[in-house]
């Protein structure tokens, strides 16, 4: 069957767009953004042509069927299915692209201390101490928070300043939120300001022992992450019990997930090791291994409130260099919200 002029035009446009993309794989960011806008306009112009082409194919299939030319009707039907699959793929690809643009950290209503975090991994989101899950619902990115609130953002917003709608539980009225994308530098600066604002006025109740070397959890190098999201979490809003007002924060996906961290040791010897963990209503239970030795079994970090706990990991002979701390999710307390979260404030090494 000879291709129609419309069919040929569609293929020529698609081929030209592929060639342009290949030629401009490495270009300035502003040019890339301008090119993406142009490509979207071309895509929007092509869609009506493709739909007209499919409608014409439908009519042709009906005609061939009535005339009893079954082989030709089957060939047209195959082309219809191909074009419909292409339209569906483009729609899905557009949704994915839009959702990806919304990933990152956003300040709310020009307040850099009021941050919304949206991650592609596990469809996770966080605002202050509230966690949430996002999903694509038609033309919306919808986030449902653990506290019952929800946030809706239209997927077609592609600028670095967007608008969202926040709904309280059981309420149809919404609060409009202005969200502005934050760079990592802006996030770090805002977090430092928060630490300074909530700096403790009294001595640290968990000050390191005399002669102990303290290693901050959020500064530990990740050797391997099998499942979930790992990040630094500011903790100043919860009080002054967290060293450096922050912690290493891991949100696993399920039991059996593993996290491996490197603990630096500058001199070989025997060390007494203690660790300060965060406890909270949605934290899990964990097995801890240091250089493959099981030092803690079923560490339960559930607590009805957010607090810290110092845990003695025992005395071990440590070589000079990085020591491997492995954390394995084993489950959760019966009273806990089953999110299996893990927080490590710091580790202290005292040479004996």
Question: Could you describe the 3D structure shown?
Answer:
The longest helix has 39 residues, at 29-67. Strands 1-2-3-4-5-6-7-8 form an 8-stranded antiparallel beta barrel. The protein has helices at 5-23, 29-67, 70-101, 184-197, and strands at residues 104-108, 111-118, 124-127, 130-137, 140-145, 150-154, 161-167, 174-181, 212-216, 221-226, 229-234, 246-251, 258-265, 269-279, 285-290, 293-300, 307-318, 321-331, 342-351. Helix content is 30%, strand content 40%. The protein has 352 residues and is an alpha+beta fold. The model is unreliable at 20-25 (pLDDT under 50). The termini are far apart. It is built from 4 helices and 19 strands. The protein folds into 3 domains: 5-101; 104-181; 198-351, Galactose-binding domain-like (Jelly Rolls).
Summary tags:
single chain; 352 residues; alpha+beta; Jelly Rolls; 3 domains; eight-stranded antiparallel β-barrel; six-stranded antiparallel beta sheet; elongated
Overall 3D geometry?
Answer: elongated
Report strand order across the widest sheet.
1-2-3-4-5-6-7-8
CATH architecture annotation of the largest domain: Sandwich
CATH class of the largest domain: Mainly Beta
Percent helix: 25-40%
The secondary-structure element order is HHHEEEEEEEEHEEEEEEEEEEE
CATH H-tier superfamily of the largest domain: Galactose-binding domain-like
What's the structural domain tally?
A: 3
Radius of gyration (CA) equals: 28 Å
Tell me the total number of β-strands: 19
Q: What is the CATH topology descriptor of the largest domain?
A: Jelly Rolls
List the total number of helices.
4
The parts where pLDDT drops under 50 for at least 5 residues are 20-25
């Amino acid at each position: 069957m000879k291709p129609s002029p419309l069919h040929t035009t569609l293929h020529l446009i698609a081929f030209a767009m592929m060639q342009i993309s290949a030629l401009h794989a490495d270009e300035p960011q502003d040019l890339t953004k301008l090119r993406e806008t142009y490509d979207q306009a071309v895509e929007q112009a092509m869609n009506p042509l493709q739909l007209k082409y499919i409608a014409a194919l439908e009519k042709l299939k009906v005609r061939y069927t009535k005339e009893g030319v079954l082989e030709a009707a089957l060939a047209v039907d195959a082309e219809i299915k191909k074009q419909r699959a292409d339209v569906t793929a483009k729609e899905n690809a557009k949704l994915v692209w839009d959702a990806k643009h919304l990933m990152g950290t956003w300040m709310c209503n020009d307040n850099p201390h009021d941050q919304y975090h949206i991650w592609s991994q596990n469809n996770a989101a966080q605002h202050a101490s509230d966690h949430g899950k996002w999903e694509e619902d038609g033309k919306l990115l919808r986030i449902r928070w653990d506290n019952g609130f929800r946030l809706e953002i239209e997927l077609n917003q592609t600028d670095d300043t967007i608008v969202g709608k926040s709904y309280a539980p059981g309420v149809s009225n919404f609060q409009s939120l202005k969200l502005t994308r934050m760079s990592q530098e802006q996030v770090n600066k805002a977090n430092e300001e928060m630490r300074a604002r909530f700096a403790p006025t009294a001595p640290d109740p968990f000050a390191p022992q005399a002669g102990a070397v303290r290693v901050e959890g959020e500064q530990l190098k990740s050797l391997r992450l099998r499942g979930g999201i790992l990040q630094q979490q500011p903790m100043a809003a919860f009080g002054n019990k967290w060293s450096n007002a922050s912690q290493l924060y891991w949100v696993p996906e399920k039991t059996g997930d593993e996290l491996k961290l490197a603990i630096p040791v500058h001199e070989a010897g025997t060390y007494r090791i203690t660790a300060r963990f965060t406890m909270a209503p949605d934290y899990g239970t964990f097995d801890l291994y240091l250089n493959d030795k099981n030092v803690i079994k079923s560490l339960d970090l559930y607590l009805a409130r957010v607090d810290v706990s110092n845990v003695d990991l025992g005395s071990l002979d440590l070589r000079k260099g990085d020591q491997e701390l492995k954390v394995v999710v084993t489950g959760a307390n019966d009273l806990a919200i089953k999110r299996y979260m893990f927080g490590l404030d710091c580790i202290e090494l005292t040479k004996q």
